[in-house]
Each structure stands twice: as structure tokens, then as C-alpha cells.
Design a protein that fits this description.
- By secondary structure, the protein is an alpha/beta fold.
- The protein contains 14 helices and eleven strands.
- Strand 5 (112-117), helix 6 (120-128) and strand 6 form a beta-alpha-beta unit.
- The two termini are 21 Å apart.
- This is Nitronate monooxygenase.
């Protein structure tokens, strides 16, 4: 499976674990890296010193490459970028903002930069900014989403036409068959969030994992479009958001409803009633699987991929 993505990161398989808030700590990132993929720490839910601690522990747990996902809207962005450089991190994925300001700064410090986009327009802008690769993330994804609501099946070929950069597909990918499908559309690698968020090594609460592993089709929906479109599990909090939006709530009113720490409450602390529960549509395909280890997931993905490839030859 060697290609531009594996060579760019120095990994065995072109499989990247999403840097998800409250899920992607050092245990998950190091486990994915040790299994031949690229693990990412999710800086979006970490204070600077917490991120430093996770980087140090990740270095101790793996000798393989790993990276950090940094939302560019992070309130202490200057501090977090300096910290990542000081700690010798060699791969940074940026998201939720323009990569123009930071790409050269990171390159000057020997750091590979990948940016997450939701449209071919943003992919071109990322290429102009000088990034080394892009992640094109479709509407199916969990958590924060693009405003365009373009599905992965439509997005990947559009971005492939728009840029010559190495392309990683994300959104709705949780099986080996899906990896093969997006590679056929022009992606050279995949970023997987939901599947890894629900593993034993993920720092999400057991209650959240078990809930998500019991979801049916249609049990998530995209809400909070006036703020930052976010895919949420149907439940008490998402119902309250939907009702507020239907009643014409302003962005400020939605911010008040959201409050602070709502995602931590749901994903990390396991409050399934009042928490913000973010997960991708593809969770319904995992129904009944139970909580697997990262090693089990990687073995399954690779076996499914190889079988799907062989089946297509006949």
C-alpha cells in the first residue's frame, strides 16, 4: 500500500486516525501509530500543558511517527504552535480556519503540514498556502463539518480535480471496502474518526462508546449551522438544539444553549442526557461490534480491503 501518503509520513499503511476532541489522547494515537497508521493527538480539547503531557507520553509509547491536529480557531494558537515545535512534533494537521498564516512558520521548523477542507475551493486555497497534503472531509463525518454539506462520494473526485496535492479522504469511512472505494475516486489515503473514537484506547467514556455502538441509521443529524455545523447523536440535548433552531434562534442564543464544556460533558464524562455527543453517520455500520482494540480494528480494515480488492478481480 505504499504511495505518496505513506512516504510523506513514513508510515506502513495510508490510514490516519482523526484528531478528535476528548477521544484522541496519547493512548489512541500511539496505538494507531504502532499498528502502522498515523496517530494524531487532538489538541482541540487540551490546554497547552495537557497537550505537552500527551506529546511526551506518546513519544514514550511509540517510536513511530505521530502528529497533532490543531484547530486554527484555538484560543491560544500562538502558544500551542510554539509548544508543538519545541516538543519536536514533525506532523501537524490544521483545521477550522485558513492555513495561510501558519504553514510557512511550521515548514521553517521542519514540520509537515496537512489541512482539512470541505470543498474543492478550500483545497485550492490550501495548495496556494503551501500545505503538503489535504484531507477532504465529507458531510457524513462526526463533529464539526463543512457548511457545503457535500458528501464524501462527491467531494473526493471534485478535490482530486482541483489539486495535485496528496489527498486523504475522510467522512463515512469505517471499513476496508470504504477505503478501496475512496481510493478508486482518487484519494491516496483515509482519515478515520468514528471507528477509532469507539476503540478501547480512545479516551471517550465507555457510556458514550456503548451508545454510539448501538445507533441505527438516521440516529445522527447535522445541527448548529448558524455557529459551526456539528453532527450530533439524537437525544435530549440535540432535540433542544433542533427545537431552538426551528424556532429561529439567533447565533448568540445557540451559543448560550451550548454553553461551555458541553462536548466534554457528553463524550469524555459520559453524560448522555445533557452532553454534546458528536459522532459520524457511519457509527450505525458498527452496531453490535462492541468495543475493539486499535490492533483489532486495523487488522479488520486491512483484511476487508484485501478481500474487496480480490473480489473485484473476479
Amino acid at each position: 500500500m505504499e504511495n505518496r501518503i505513506t512516504r510523506l509520513f513514513g508510515i506502513e499503511y495510508p490510514i490516519v486516525q482523526g484528531g478528535m476532541v476528548w477521544c484522541s489522547g496519547w493512548r489512541l494515537a500511539s496505538a494507531v501509530s504502532n499498528a502502522g497508521g498515523l496517530g494524531l493527538l487532538g489538541a482541540g480539547s487540551m490546554h497547552p500543558e495537557t497537550l505537552r503531557e500527551h506529546i511526551v507520553k506518546c513519544k514514550a509509547a511509540t517510536t513511530k511517527p505521530f502528529g497533532v491536529n490543531i484547530p486554527l480557531m484555538y484560543p491560544q494558537i500562538d502558544e500551542i504552535m510554539q509548544l508543538v515545535a519545541d516538543e519536536g512534533v514533525k506532523i501537524v494537521f490544521t483545521s477550522a480556519g485558513s492555513p495561510k498564516k501558519w504553514t510557512n512558520w511550521l515548514h521553517e521548523r521542519g514540520i509537515t503540514v496537512v489541512h482539512v477542507v470541505s470543498s474543492s475551493l478550500f483545497a485550492r486555497k490550501a495548495e496556494e498556502a503551501g500545505v503538503d497534503a489535504v484531507v477532504a472531509e465529507g458531510f457524513e463525518a462526526g463533529g464539526h463539518n463543512g457548511r457545503e454539506e457535500t458528501t464524501t462520494l462527491c467531494l473526493i473526485p471534485a478535490v482530486r480535480k482541483a489539486t495535485s496535492l496528496p489527498l486523504i479522504a475522510a467522512g463515512g469511512i469505517a471499513t476496508g471496502e470504504a477505503i478501496l472505494a475512496v481510493r478508486a475516486l482518487g484519494a491516496e489515503g483515509v482519515q478515520i474518526g468514528t471507528r477509532f473514537a469507539l476503540t478501547a484506547e480512545s479516551s471517550a467514556s465507555e457510556a458514550f462508546k456503548n451508545l454510539c455502538l448501538d445507533l441505527q441509521e438516521g440516529d445522527t443529524r447535522l445541527l448548529l449551522k448558524k455557529l459551526s455545523p456539528t453532527r450530533l447523536v439524537r437525544g435530549r440535548f440535540s432535540d433542544a438544539v433542533a427545537e431552538a433552531e426551528a424556532a429561529g434562534a439567533t447565533a448568540d442564543e445557540l451559543r448560550t444553549l451550548l454553553g461551555r464544556g458541553r462536548a466534554k460533558l457528553g463524550i469524555f464524562e459520559g453524560n448522555l442526557e445533557e452532553g454534546e455527543l458528536e459522532i459520524g453517520q457511519v457509527a450505525s455500520l458498527l452496531r453490535g461490534k462492541g468495543i475493539q482494540t486499535v490492533s483489532e480494528v486495523m487488522d479488520e480494515l486491512l483484511a476487508e480491503y484485501r478481500k474487496a480488492w480480490d473480489d473485484m478481480q473476479h
